[in-house]
Design goal:
- With 627 residues, the chain is mostly beta strands.
- It folds into three domains: 301 residues; 185 residues, TIM Barrel (Alpha-Beta Barrel), CATH 3.20.20; 113 residues, no CATH class.
- The strands form nine sheets. The chain has an eight-stranded antiparallel beta sheet.
- Strand 9 and strand 10 form a beta hairpin.
- Helix 4 runs parallel beside helix 5.
C-alpha cells in the first residue's frame, strides 16, 4: 500500500494505491477507484476508463430504488481500513487486506444504517470489451496483445454476484447484445451494445431459449458482469440485509408473457445482513487467472473446493463426460462406461427422484427390497448396482426435482407441512365447514395471480388452511371477497372445518410437466439438502442431475438460498463419509458455481475450459471460466 499526493490547481488530492503480484489499483479521496493497472509486465496497461471511475462500495435503499455513492474517503493505514462517508450520513468502514494475488475487501461496519437495505461492491467499470463472465464476475481480454482479466469473488454466503437492484437475488435469464470481437462479429445496424432481449421461444420450452445462435446474442445466467453502450464490461457483487420483512415481484424470465412476475413474501433470516460482506478483487494475466489466482482465492479463503481424482473440479484437466442410460436395461452400461473412460453413470431413464423424507433416504426401502435396476441376471437395488460399478471406479446417480416437494411425499400431502413457503398470507373472514366452497378472505390483493411465475400452472394454484390444501382459480371482484372455482381436500389432504381468522397461505409452487410440487421454507430446505446426502450414503449414489435447480430461487433468496442448500448437502455428506457428490442441473448460478462439477448443456470441455476460440467462448451455452 502506498499513499499518493497529487495537485489539482490549488487543491491537494490524497490517493491510496494497493498492489498484488499482477494488479495495481488507486483509490481517490472520494472512495472511487480511478486506476486499475496490469503490473504483470512492463506495459502497466490501464483498465479504468477516465469517464467512469468505480465506487469502492455503494449503499442501496430498496423501497426507493436509490443508491448512495461515497463522497469522502479516509484511509487509516494503521488499521488497513477505509472510512467511506455518504450523503445520507452513513459511514462505512472497509478493511483492505492485500494478499499476494488479490485484495480482500470486507465491510466491518456501517453506522448508522439509515434505512440501507443492501450494499454493492462497485460496480467496477473496466475498459475491457472482449469476454464477460456474468456468473462470478470477470472481464477478460483474451487477445495475445493484452491477455488480462479482472474479477471479483464472494468470500461469504451472503455476498452474491450481481447488483443491489437484483429482484429476488437471482438475475433474470435473458439475452444481452455484446460482440466479443466487433471486427469478426460486427453488430447489425438495428442492434446496439448492452441492449436486452428476452429468451427465445414461448417461455415454456427451455430448448427454445437458445433460439439466437449469433455470437453477439449473449445469454445471461447472472449479472455479476454487464456491458455498457460502449461494450465496456463492469463487475459487481452485493450483500443484502435478510433480517427484515419484505416482498418482491419476481420472475426469472420476467419479459415473457408465459412467465410474468408474481408477488412473493420473502422469509426473514435472523442475524443475516451485510456486515461482514467480503470479496476478493483481483487482476491477472488471463491465462493464469483460473488456476493461479482463482484457485488460490478458493483455497486460501476456505471456499468450497470439491475434487475428483485429486483434481479441482474447475480444472479443465478434470473434465470427463458422463454416461446416460436409456431403455431401462443395464447389463452393459458399466462395461461400456469403463471402455469409454468415463467415471459416472446417470440413471436418467429411472425418472425423477422426488425428495421424500418419509423414506429416510432409503429410496429402495430400508431393507433394499425394491429392485429397480434391471439386468438379465436379476434386478438390483441402487446400492447393489453401485457396488458393481464401484469395482471399476464408476459412480452412479439420479435426476431429481431439487427442492420441489411433490404430492404424496412426506412434506407435501396428504398432510402438508407447516414449513411450506408461501407467496401471500391472508385471514379467513367466516367459519367454513368441511364441504363449504365459499371461502371468504380479508384482502384479495395478488390472490388472482396464478401459481408461480414459471408457466403459471393452474393445477398448482392452491392455498393451505391448517392441514388442508385447497385449489382455486381467481378471486371475486367485489366485497365480500372470496376464492373462486374452489376444490376442497386437494392432493388427497383431509377436508376439515376452519374458523374465522384462521390463516390462509397462498403457497409458493413449482411448475407442471412432472415437476409439480410446493416449495419449502429455508429450514425445511436445509433438511431436504441433508436428505440428498443421506440418499447418497444409504444407496451408493455419488451423482445428481438437479433438474428444476431454479426452484432454489423460488423463496426469494436467490443465490443465497442456493449456496445454503448445496453447502448444507456437502456438509452432511462429509459427516456421513461421502467423499464427493458430482452434480449438474437445470442451471448454473453464482450460488452453485463452487459446488457444481458440470453443466450438461453442450459438449467439449463443457464448463471450465478458459481457452477462447475465434474470439468467443469455446461453448456458446456453457458458462466456463468465463463464469
Amino acid at each position: 500500500m502506498l499513499f499518493c499526493i497529487a495537485f489539482q490547481g490549488n487543491r491537494v488530492k490524497k490517493e491510496t494505491i494497493f498492489t498484488t503480484e499482477y494488479f495495481r489499483i488507486r483509490v481517490d479521496e472520494r472512495g472511487f477507484i480511478n486506476s486499475m493497472q496490469n503490473i504483470a509486465n512492463s506495459s502497466h496497461q490501464e483498465f479504468s476508463p477516465v469517464d467512469k471511475p468505480s465506487p469502492l462500495l455503494r449503499l442501496y435503499v430498496e423501497e426507493k430504488q436509490l443508491y448512495f455513492e461515497p463522497v469522502k474517503s479516509v484511509y487509516k493505514a494503521s488499521k488497513n481500513e477505509f472510512e467511506l462517508n455518504y450523503d445520507n450520513g452513513s459511514v462505512a468502514v472497509v478493511e483492505v487486506d492485500p494478499k499476494a494475488k488479490y485484495l480482500k475487501l470486507t465491510l466491518k461496519s456501517l453506522t448508522p444504517h439509515n434505512g440501507i437495505d443492501d450494499v454493492e461492491w462497485g460496480s467496477i467499470q473496466t475498459n475491457i470489451t472482449n469476454l464477460m463472465g456474468e456468473i462470478i464476475g470477470v472481464a477478460r481480454d483474451t487477445s495475445e496483445a493484452v491477455n488480462y482479466a479482472i474479477g471479483m469473488m464472494a468470500l461469504n454466503d451472503n455476498t452474491l454476484g450481481g447488483l443491489s437492484t437484483t429482484i429476488g437475488d437471482a438475475a433474470p435469464f435473458q439475452y444481452i447484445i455484446h460482440s466479443p470481437n466487433p471486427v469478426q462479429f460486427p453488430l447489425p445496424d438495428h442492434l446496439h451494445e448492452g441492449e436486452i432481449f428476452t429468451l427465445g421461444g414461448d417461455g415454456i420450452s427451455d430448448v427454445a431459449f437458445y433460439a439466437h445462435k449469433e455470437p453477439y446474442y449473449r445469454i445471461m445466467y447472472g449479472n455479476a458482469a454487464m456491458v455498457d453502450e460502449k461494450a465496456r464490461i463492469s463487475i459487481a457483487y452485493h450483500s443484502r440485509d435478510r433480517d427484515r420483512d419484505r416482498e418482491v415481484l419476481f420472475s426469472l424470465i420476467p419479459n415473457m408473457k408465459a412467465n410474468i412476475p408474481n408477488h412473493l413474501e420473502v422469509q426473514r433470516v435472523p442475524g443475516v445482513d451485510f456486515i461482514g460482506s467480503s470479496v476478493a478483487f483481483w487482476g491477472s494475466p488471463d491465462d493464469l487467472a483460473l488456476m493461479d489466482v482463482i484457485q488460490t482465492i478458493v483455497l486460501d479463503e476456505g471456499l468450497p473446493y470439491p475434487t475428483v481424482d485429486g483434481k479441482w473440479v474447475k480444472d479443465p484437466a478434470a473434465f470427463k463426460p458422463d454416461a446416460m442410460t436409456h431403455g431401462g436395461v443395464y447389463d452393459s452400461i458399466i462395461s461400456y462406461t469403463n471402455r469409454l473412460g468415463f467415471k459416472t453413470i446417470s440413471l436418467y431413464d429411472q425418472g425423477f427422484l422426488n425428495p421424500d423424507r418419509g423414506n429416510k433416504g432409503y429410496i429402495d426401502g430400508e431393507n433394499y427390497e425394491k429392485k429397480p435396476i434391471n439386468l438379465k441376471s436379476g434386478a438390483l437395488s441402487h446400492l447393489e448396482f453401485s457396488e458393481l460399478a464401484a469395482r471399476l471406479g464408476i459412480t452412479i446417480g439420479r435426476t431429481t426435482i431439487t427442492n420441489s416437494m411433490a404430492p404424496g411425499t412426506k412434506d407435501a400431502s396428504p398432510i402438508p407441512s407447516d414449513s411450506i413457503w408461501y407467496q401471500q398470507k391472508r385471514l379467513l373472514t367466516q367459519f367454513i365447514d368441511a364441504e363449504d366452497t365459499l371461502i371468504y378472505v380479508n384482502d384479495p390483493i395478488y390472490l388472482d395471480e396464478i401459481a408461480s411465475w414459471e408457466g403459471h400452472t393452474k393445477e398448482l394454484n392452491m392455498v393451505k388452511i391448517g392441514k388442508e390444501l385447497i385449489h382455486y382459480v381467481g378471486v371475486s371482484d367485489f366485497a365480500p371477497y372470496r376464492l373462486l372455482n374452489v376444490t376442497r381436500g386437494y392432493w388427497n389432504s383431509q377436508k376439515i372445518a376452519h374458523h374465522k381468522n384462521d390463516t390462509i397461505y397462498k403457497l409458493q409452487v413449482t411448475v407442471g410437466w412432472g415437476y409439480e410440487g410446493v416449495i419449502p421454507n429455508l429450514q425445511l430446505q436445509d433438511e431436504i439438502a441433508k436428505y440428498y446426502a443421506d440418499v447418497c450414503a444409504g444407496n451408493g449414489l455419488a451423482y445428481y442431475d438437479f433438474d428444476g435447480q431454479e426452484f432454489l430461487f423460488y423463496n426469494g433468496h436467490g443465490y443465497y438460498s442456493t449456496k445454503r442448500f448445496f453447502g448444507t448437502m456437502f456438509d452432511r455428506a462429509k459427516d456421513l463419509g461421502v467423499p464427493y457428490i458430482r452434480f449438474t442441473g437445470a442451471t448454473l448460478s453464482e450460488g452453485s458455481w463452487h459446488y457444481q462439477s458440470i453443466w450438461n448443456v453442450d459438449g467439449g470441455k463443457n464448463l471450465y475450459d478458459p481457452n477462447p476460440e475465434n474470439g468467443v467462448v469455446r461453448l456458446a451455452r456453457a458458462k466456463i471460466f468465463e463464469m
